[in-house]
Specification:
Blueprint: H1 3-12, E1 17-22, H2 35-38, E2 44-51, H3 63-88, E3 94-97, E4 103-105, E5 110-112, H4 117-123, E6 128-129, E7 135-136, E8 144-151, H5 170-174, H6 187-194, E9 195-198, E10 203-206, H7 210-214
Antiparallel strand pairs: 1-2, 2-8, 3-8, 4-5, 6-7, 9-10
């Protein structure tokens, strides 16, 4: 099995992007959240992306953006599971990483996925992380949702992307709760403001994505049909 075949299989299950990192690229992972802490046989990390409909940014109600986000999560998990089951037909062991499931890390006082998907995506050459803490890809900007699979095979890794974020601080200045003032996002401030129940409409919603909206690189080449001025 080579890297090209791996990507063909991942794309056949619906992924829009796919990249590969070897295990050596995860030396800076936090204690307990390294791919080897999850799957000791891991030799490569396969990351994939699924485009997020950019039209949701233009809506005057948060409901479409919220619903799409909630619908994409099980879709991503299904792609990862189907891929792992397909790879076992080739006698290759893979482990799916949940797309939207986090646990409390007492060492850092933060919620974390069992491995960081955005750092895995950066290590796999899909894009680079911006000042707003989101992954920016050339094709879809930050309008991409991420999944990953740990693999027990040595696969040829993709080249890393050059950073595009120039620390313009538009995202920092646009945050209503000042969650981006330090190099590491204040996770709790962001979550408490952006996610929760809307008492007026009696519905859970995502009410804020201002840092995503204002970023000069949030669209990417394949979303360029949307006029940037409409997002501001």
């Amino acid at each position: 099995m080579n890297s090209q075949k791996v990507k063909e299989i991942m794309h056949s299950f619906g992924a829009d992007l796919c990249g590969i990192a070897d295990i050596s690229r995860f030396s800076d992972a936090p204690k307990g959240y390294h791919p080897l802490d999850v799957f000791p046989a891991c030799r490569s990390v396969i990351t994939f992306g699924f485009r997020f409909p950019v039209g949701t940014l233009l809506c005057k109600t948060p409901i479409p953006y919220t619903r799409v986000r909630n619908s994409i999560t099980p879709k991503m998990d299904a792609i990862a599971l189907d891929f792992c089951m397909e790879m076992e037909k080739y006698e290759i062991a893979c482990v799916p990483i949940p797309t939207n499931e986090s646990q409390w890390d007492q060492n850092t006082g933060r919620y974390r996925s069992i491995i960081s998907l955005k750092h895995a995506a950066q290590a796999s050459g899909l894009g680079t992380i911006g000042r707003h803490s989101l992954l920016i890809t050339p094709e879809y900007g930050s309008m991409i949702w991420l999944g990953a699979v740990l693999c027990d095979q040595d696969l040829e890794p993709d080249r890393l992307k050059e950073p595009v974020c120039d620390n313009c601080n538009l995202c920092v200045n646009s945050c209503p709760v000042h969650a981006l003032e330090n190099p590491e996002i204040d996770q709790q401030k962001c979550w408490n403001y952006a996610f929760g129940d809307d008492e007026e409409i009696q519905s859970w919603r995502i009410q804020c994505h201002k840092c995503r909206d204002i970023c000069p690189y949030n669209l990417g080449s394949k979303n360029s049909f949307i006029k940037k001025q409409f997002l501001l």
